[in-house]
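Hi Y.,

Following your request, here is the sequence exactly as I used it, all 106 residues.
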Amino acid sequence: MDDDLWSAIGDPTRRRMLDLLLSQGSATATSLSEHLPVTRQAVAKHLTVLDRVGLVHASTAGREKHYRVDEAQLARAVAQLADVGAAWDARLRRIKRIAETIQKNL
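Below is the corresponding structure, written out as tokens. Let me know if you'd prefer a different format.
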């Protein structure tokens, strides 16, 4: 598991930013801040975190940076989450079997 990646995704504002970027294709910090309850400066800091873990990449157009989601890195995160979910499902099935065995023996 990539702790830095999950720490970045763990923030609700950053998850909302990823949603916005996925729906819009690309956006600037200013345009993202219009849809979020945080300042443009806060958005820029969140984008730095997302960029550092490879979830977004910036391209410069004039004086602006346009950010877009790195779909390969996002797919990697989704795969990791699926693995975690499958592991927990297996654990819960084992717990259920143990509980059923205990219940039968009472």
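The first strand starts at residue 56 and ends at 61.

Thanks again,
Q.
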